Amino acid sequence: MRKYTGMYILRPTLTEEQIKANVEELNKLFTDRGGEILSEEEWGLKELAYAINDFNKGFLHLSLI
Fold first, then answer.
1. pLDDT (mean) for 29-54
2. What does the pLDDT read at residue 2?
3. Cβ(3)–Cβ(62) under 8 Å?
4. Is the whole model's pTM more than 0.70, yes or no?
5. Distance between CA atoms of residues 65 and 52, nearest Å
6. In the chain, what percentage of residues exceed pLDDT 90?
7. Planar angle of CA 24, 29, 33, nearest 5 degrees
8. 34/6 Cα distance (integer angstroms)
9. Average pLDDT in the chain
10. In whole angstroms, what is the distance from residue 45 CA to residue 57 CA?
11. pLDDT attached to residue 10
12. Alpha carbon distance 24, 45 (integer Å)
């Protein structure tokens, strides 16, 4: 089976509970379609190379699927 990497950049204004809920929802999209989450890494709040929707920072999360 092929392996894929999912990188999520979430808004820096979200609370910790909202971040966890968003990551769970995104991972559920993969598992509902037959994928398996092999590993996850939370990279935390990082400075972005360029602004996205007027945000210069974002919470990064990496999933190996």
1. 94
2. 84
3. no
4. yes
5. 25
6. 82
7. 140
8. 15
9. 93
10. 7
11. 96
12. 18
**How many residues belong to the chain?**
65
Question: Residue 18 is which amino acid?
Answer: Q
Query: Where do we find the tokens 């990551």?
Result: 23
Please give the distance of CA 34 from its chain centroid, rounded to a whole number: 19
Residue written as tokens 């509970």? Answer: 17
Tell me if 63 sits within 8 A of 28, measured CB to CB: no
Question: Helix (H, G, I), strand (E, B), or coil: what is residue 41?
Answer: strand
Q: DSSP string of 45-63?
A: EEEEEEEETTEEEEEEEEE
Token pair belonging to 41: 């890494």
Q: In the structure encoding, which two tokens stand for residue 39, read together?
A: 């590993």
